[in-house]
Amino acid sequence: GDSVTQMEGPVTLSEEAFLTINCTYTATGYPSLFWYVQYPGEGLQLLLKATKADDKGSNKGFEATYRKETTSFHLEKGSVQVSDSAVYFCALRDRIWDMRFGAGTRLTVKP
Amino acid sequence: DAGITQSPRHKVTETGTPVTLRCHQTENHRYMYWYRQDPGHGLRLIHYSYGVKDTDKGEVSDGYSVSRSKTEDFLLTLESATSSQTSVYFCAISESSLDSNQPQHFGDGTRLSIL
Fold first, then answer.
1. If you average pLDDT over every residue of chain A, what do you get?
2. Which positions in chain B touch A59 (Cβ < 8 Å)?
3. What is the pLDDT of residue B2?
């Protein structure tokens, strides 16, 4: 079945460092891909999405490109801030009712 | 923010007792979902609903039942709670669409501890 694999965390960076969180997927169809962010004590919030190959999703300085040839959707940010500390989830959706999530990657940004 | 309210936000109960969690939405979205979040597993789908009285099982449905008598409410019931059901439960909603590119929007979760 469909699945998502994320790089294991936790990830600790200094403020203004470059961030990459790797995400690869397995799907039989043509899924849409998403990144969600979860702050402590809260639910998941949509960060960005891409719905077809070569699409780039972007929001709040974060970017991810849908790479069909490598089945990847890596999350990047050029300069992280302390406020970016959270857990990040990669997800795919191939059918309306079926969203698959990665295990999550905890990011801590230190001043 | 999507209008999703989960109640209660925290609950501690004993093994063998029934537990009902409620999800209420004000967005009039057709699809509603219940997930559980456990360390190392991300979120896993328990049950979902595609309309009033229309529900189906997800990946980890054993030990759970759901009901949806109104568009805005989706209830998750643990008939006889077990310690393995200790988790954080999230409700999500999504708009009606034939496409899979619609995101899901999440509530703030219910932390359930079963002793």
1. 93
2. none
3. 66
